[in-house]
Design goal:
The complex is a heterotrimer of chains A (about 300), B (about 325) and C (about 600). Chain B has 13 helices and no strands. Chain B is mostly helical and about 325 residues long. The chains are: A mainly alpha (about 300), B mainly alpha (about 325), C alpha/beta (about 600). Chains in contact: A-B, A-C, B-C.
Chain lengths: ~300, ~325, ~600
């Protein structure tokens, strides 16, 4: 926090800023960081190579069920690959996509939203109409079509998600930017000689930053889901890289043989998305713009 | 009423323009394909000359803009081309699968709306009480489960573990599907077979519920926060000062205002829900556009991808326009006096 | 027969664990058919009285002592259903903000119908009753009005509709909570007249809540003055106004600028204690600001004693142990008129016009906000622009300062024309604006020091130390303590924020200051402080000002010349005294007539015609 500005009410006396003290934020951060750490440490944590096939030990149940083996803590899939290892490596893709794609979508969406909301007029109209057109595609369909057009691979998955989801950022942020731009202090800054760039960065951005942060957190959850959907239909990364969606697709075909293999990736996705949602909800509550501005 | 007709007409016009732009975008994206549709449609041992000839035949050597115009012209005449993979008319394929998807989406939206409004009212009712954190946590948990996870979960629970409901296809084997409108629930009633109706319903319950539950939490939360906002308004306080009962205030004043942003959101949500039918159809082997699309994508079947993609957009645009029109009717502030 | 009786009524809330009384030991008696005025500044607790009657206190507030009885029945002890029964029937309310008091998605007819159904009017009679009610409140074309939605009505029309609602049940008591504050000046007088008319016709008792002492003196039979939750004076309106017993009432009177004389303003120091401080004040809450305050005042709350007791019981009481000294409080001397340089004008506006076009591609409609306005401003001159909402005065200000571009006309600042390439920088150097709404005019994330030195930030890189120093100087000039520099706007009061607003504008040493309604919405005593501040700053810094306001008395006090605007045009211009004494244009006359006279014994033109 600089001596000049603050993104939260200045009256708080505690050393920790309000947002860090919220139980939701802490819980969400804990879950998300845990998964990120697991993803980073995958080679150290995974008991086996995720692609290593073991055709004599297919459809093993988890170690605690009867028939299970300690070597495969969560069992194996149709090709005898260790479920736990695949789960851990799958976290890598999930987290990479989540972080990079949401930051990318945020950058494009936020920049365009601020330009549209601040300058108004024809610029706003153009960006607004572009967003409208873009949003008439259901996101699932559009990302699928983009993957067809771009081809599979991690980079393209991220690109596809960025290209689909920037509109969500743009639309929500633009509404906020419009409200803030109407405030007299923005006009006052211009009157006092601030350039457009300075006005946007010093007066408008600090006001929209809380919303931006909340949206990024929520978007990360969405990105994980979209990636899972794409890999479920086989249009995500190369088949040699394990992903949770792919695990679900495989397990679904053999649902009677091993319902466990379906349950674990479902749980993984659920916990990850829940973590991001709780974090985003906590941030939204503590950084709520209305709370910080309306207290008189 | 007469003053909103020009506004609605404008909205429709705008949607048409959007449709044209969307179709052009679709066209361009698909032309980025790393695969060559001409080569795909010929046997693997075709010579280069044959592939070239096929390309010319398919019009793939023309500049992009002309290709688009040709395709647009064909579409307007109802000719969506022929599927590379199925070797059938695309229009026919789309026509037979569209009603199934629309039926599923409609049922799901109804469920989502009903659950959303009931949940929203409940969340609003418990605010400030001790049950609030539980209800709130519940809604966040619900939010974190995407539709395809719900779909799989239902299969695991009701299909595999409990064995209560079927989870593939639209009708059990042994029933012959009536084809009148394409909407199974209507058709079975039209031919007077209530037993088939029940069977069709049993097949649709799990997928529709999976979709509906997945999209209801957003509606719940928006209704709740709209109600909270509305209750801060002065006219609610004034209504109390005039001696109106809380029940009357909620039903006649608050809800009528809070429903507007909720409706608006439901319109937006429909777009997402309609896209979600794709996954659900794959999971439940439901013969709709979603499965058609996924097959086409796996086979790089361009004409189908184009046509189905366009159809998805048309449906979403139609619903969005309808919701906007409804919003105009319900919100008097938008009518310029 | 006493209709509404309050006996030592106390309403409190819990703040930070402490028990804080919002209203304390309030006692009054309102007879049937009479009008009682409840006068106080914001935060004094007057709105709480209305809410207490309805028993619709905000969450966390409750009646903690005393009693409140309506027609003999205890309002607090009454069952909820019985109380709800009274509302809308025997007790009716007229709200402060008419436009937001009605449901925006229902027609007027639907809402009136609902109300009439509630008070028991048979369905077939309702339409007739509605039209008759609209007639009574002088609303033309009632049938058409019924089909409209609230946002299609003007503020004044909406208030008439709400008055119709209120009197539809022939109530015994009507509570009007600042019913004219949100309305235009000319409408205000008419609405007040309407309420008075309805009151007489229905013989209803009215509790008239307002911050305007002059208005209350005209309209009410009795006045009760509230300060920090206590009644400080209570008695017949004319007596209270003519010879106030409590120093606060007298100071309030003297803080209001006079319309037809130029006397000094009595600016009370500081402001009324906030809610949190109430509990910690053992004695008279006004003592710190009182010119006659002594230690005895602070020891215990002064009891209400008869004023002018020598003549016997007059029903006029004041809570002051030194009441006889009150009449000695006098207004400060009239400020000396400022010398205006006879040199070339510093601002010259010629034929300035602004048209707004709206509508999309299909329909375009034009609206002329400012039409062919011309005037000049000389150095060190204060010119007032008066007009009601929609007159174009704010647009004019924005045109001059550069936030809008004119459709036609010329602006010249210190000789430099708008067409000159260096004009933009030149204007920024010489013209600054003070915005109306202190809430939205200050960035809530910047500290006060950062806000007041914002012009320096734009100029180039300046260190934190130097900024803090400059800020300290500026704050001293505008009368804020040095430690305010590190605070955030949310921690300041409305008056303090407005001072910060002024300081920011003055930081770059402009020669022209444009003030757009900067004292509207502030309490009278805070307003007086700011006006005196502006006068003092003028003496020190010699800048010219364009002062925009709808409040004629403020313009009278501050400005040498005045321009009267309506519907985008200037209809009259001239020296303030002259224009106010002998208005030439009928609109000016209407504006002047709409203000309650300084002396309540005078007949108020606005209440008549």
């Amino acid at each position: 926090m600089s001596a000049w500005t603050s993104t939260s009410r200045g009256a708080s006396k505690s050393a920790w800023p309000a947002w860090l003290r919220s139980p939701r934020v802490l819980a969400g951060l804990a879950v998300v960081s845990a998964i990120a750490l697991i993803a980073l440490a995958a080679p150290l944590l995974a008991p086996h190579d995720p692609n290593e096939q073991n055709l004599v030990a297919t459809f093993l149940p988890p170690a605690w069920a009867n028939g299970g083996e300690a070597a495969f803590p969560l069992g194996t899939d149709s090709l005898g690959r260790c479920t736990l290892s695949r789960l851990i490596y799958g976290a890598r893709i999930a987290m990479t996509v989540a972080i990079v794609a949401s930051l990318g979508a945020m950058l494009i969406g936020a920049v365009l939203a601020h330009i549209a909301g601040y300058f108004g007029g024809a610029t706003d109209w153009l960006i607004g109409r572009t967003v409208d057109v873009w949003m008439s595609f259901p996101p699932v369909i559009l990302s699928l079509i983009l993957m067809v057009g771009l081809g599979t691979g991690l980079r393209n998955v991220i690109l596809a998600i960025v290209l689909v989801d920037w509109t969500r950022f743009c639309r929500v942020l633009r509404a906020e930017v419009l409200v803030v731009t109407r405030r007299d202090y923005v006009a006052a800054a211009r009157l006092v000689g601030f350039s457009h760039w300075r006005t946007i960065t010093r007066e408008i951005l600090p006001a929209t930053l809380p919303l931006l942060i909340t949206l990024v957190s929520l978007e990360m959850g969405i990105a994980v889901i979209v990636e899972a959907i794409l890999s479920f239909v086989g249009m995500s990364v190369e088949p040699t890289i394990p992903t949770w969606g792919q695990m679900i697709a495989d397990a679904r075909q053999f649902i009677y043989d091993s319902p466990w293999n379906l349950t674990f990736p479902i749980l993984a996705i659920f916990v990850t998305v829940l973590g991001f949602n709780v974090l985003g909800d906590g941030l939204r509550r503590t950084l709520d713009v209305r709370l910080t501005e309306s207290r008189a | 009423m007469t003053s909103i007709l020009p506004l609605i007409a404008r909205r429709i016009l705008v949607s048409l323009v959007i449709l044209v732009i969307v179709s052009a975008l679709l066209f361009c994206i698909l032309r980025l394909l790393p695969v060559d549709p001409a080569a795909m449609s010929l046997p693997p041992n075709a010579t280069l000359a044959e592939i070239e000839a096929k390309r010319r035949e398919m019009g793939l050597d023309l500049p992009l803009f002309r290709q688009y115009l040709i395709w647009a012209g064909e579409v307007l005449r109802g000719d969506f081309g022929a599927s590379i993979h199925f070797r059938r008319g695309v229009a026919g394929l789309v026509g037979s699968t569209l009603p199934a998807t629309v039926e599923l989406a409609a049922l799901a939206m109804l469920i989502a709306g009903a659950l959303g409004i009931a949940g929203g009212l409940t969340l609003f009712h418990v605010r400030g009480t001790r049950k609030e954190p539980i209800a709130d946590a519940g809604s966040i948990v619900l939010l974190s489960l995407p539709e395809f996870l719900w779909g799989l979960f239902f299969i695991l629970l009701f299909g595999v573990a409990l064995g209560l409901l079927p989870f593939t296809g639209r009708l059990s084997a042994g029933f012959e599907r009536p084809i009148i409108t394409g909407f199974l629930l209507i058709d079975t009633l039209l031919i007077g077979r209530p037993d088939m109706f029940v069977d069709a319903m049993k097949h649709m319950i799990l997928p529709a519920f999976a979709l509906g539950i997945a999209f209801s939490p957003t509606i719940m939360r928006v209704l709740r926060s709209s109600l909270i906002d509305v209750y801060q308004e002065d006219y609610i306080h004034q209504a109390r000062l005039r001696g109106l009962s809380e029940r009357r205030i909620l039903l006649h004043h608050a809800l009528k205002n809070a429903i507007l942003p909720t409706l608006s959101l439901m319109g937006v949500q429909f777009g997402f829900l309609f896209g979600g039918t794709l996954l659900i159809e794959v999971i439940y082997s439901y013969p709709g556009m979603g499965n058609l699309m996924v097959d086409a994508v796996r086979n790089a079947d361009l004409p189908i991808i184009q046509a189905v993609g366009l159809t998805y957009c048309v449906v979403v645009l139609v619903i969005n326009t309808a919701v906007d029109a409804l919003y105009l009717v319900l919100n008097p502030k938008l009518r310029v006096a | 027969m006493s209709l509404l009786v309050a006996d030592k009524l106390t309403v409190s809330t819990t703040l930070d664990g402490a028990h804080v009384p919002v209203l304390r030991d309030l006692s009054f008696s309102l007879q049937g058919g009479k009008v009682l005025g409840l006068v106080g500044e914001s935060g004094a607790g007057k709105s709480m009285v209305g809410r207490a009657v309805a028993q619709l206190l905000p969450a966390g507030f409750a009646v903690s002592g005393g009693s409140l009885a309506f027609a003999g029945a205890d309002l607090v002890a009454m069952a909820a259903e019985a109380r709800r029964n009274l509302l809308g029937r025997a007790i009716a309310f007229i709200p402060q903000e008419p436009l937001s008091a009605l449901n925006p998605v229902l027609t007027i007819a639907a809402q009136f119908n609902e109300h009439l159904a509630r008070i028991g009017v048979a369905a077939r009679e309702r339409r007739e009753r509605m039209l008759a009610a609209f007639d009574a409140v002088h609303l033309p074309r009632g049938a058409e009005l019924l089909t409209r939605y609230p946002h299609q009505l003007s503020g004044g029309m909406c208030q008439r509709v709400l008055i119709a609602f209120a009197f539809a049940s022939h109530p015994k008591l009507v509570i009007a909570d600042e019913p004219t504050t949100a309305l235009d000046v000319t409408i205000q007088a008419r609405i007040v007249r309407l309420i008075a008319e309805m009151q007489e016709r229905e013989d209803t008792a009215v509790l008239f809540i307002t911050h305007d002492l002059r208005l209350a003196a005209q309209v009410c039979d009795d006045i009760l003055v509230l300060y920090a939750g206590r009644a400080v004076e209570y008695g017949p309106a004319r007596k209270v106004f003519a010879a106030p017993g409590h120093p606060y009432t007298r100071c309030l009177q003297l803080a209001n600028p006079a319309m037809h004389a130029r006397r000094g303003l009595y600016a009370l120091p500081e402001r009324m204690p906030g809610l949190r401080a109430y509990a910690g004040i053992p004695g008279c809450a006004f003592a710190p600001r009182c010119p006659h305050g002594v230690d005895a005042c602070r020891a215990a709350p002064p009891p209400l004693v008869e004023v002018g007791a020598a003549q016997g019981a007059t029903g006029h009481v004041a809570a002051c142990i030194r009441a006889p000294l009150t009449s000695q409080i006098a207004a400060p001397a009239e400020p000396p008129p400022e010398a205006v340089a006879a040199a070339a004008p510093i601002l010259a506006v010629a034929n300035l016009t602004k048209r707004f076009t709206s509508g999309g591609l299909l329909r375009r409609s034009a609206f002329t906000a400012v039409n062919d306005v011309s005037f000049t401003l000389r150095a060190n001159e204060f010119v007032g622009i008066v007009g009601e909402s929609g007159s174009g005065k704010s647009t004019l200000a924005r045109l001059i300062v550069g936030l809008e571009a004119p459709s036609a006309g010329r602006i010249a600042i210190a000789g430099v024309e708008a067409s000159d390439p260096a004009f933009a920088a030149h204007r920024r150097r010489h013209v600054q604006m003070v915005f109306q709404d202190p809430q939205s005019a200050l960035n809530p994330r910047r500290r006060v020091a950062s806000i007041v030195t914002q012009p320096l930030e734009a100029a180039g890189h300046i260190g934190w130390e130097e900024r803090l120093a400059r800020a300290g100087l500026l704050l001293g000039e505008i009368g804020l303590p040095a430690d305010a520099a590190l605070r955030f706007p949310a921690q300041l009061s409305g008056g303090q924020r407005q001072r910060v607003n002024i300081a920011r504008a003055l930081c770059a040493l402009p020669r022209i200051l444009i003030a757009d309604e900067i004292v509207s919405g502030l309490d009278v005593s805070v307003q007086a402080q700011l006006l005196n501040l502006l006068a003092a700053l003028r003496r020190e810094r010699h800048f010219a000002m364009l002062f925009i306001s709808h409040d004629l008395s403020v313009v009278r006090y501050l400005c040498d010349r005045v321009l009267v605007m309506t519907r985008g045009e200037v209809v009259e211009a001239g020296p303030t005294e002259q224009v106010f004494a002998a208005p030439a244009h009928e609109y000016t006359r209407a504006l002047l007539a709409a203000v309650p006279p300084d002396d309540p014994a005078e007949v108020w033109e606005g209440l008549r015609a």
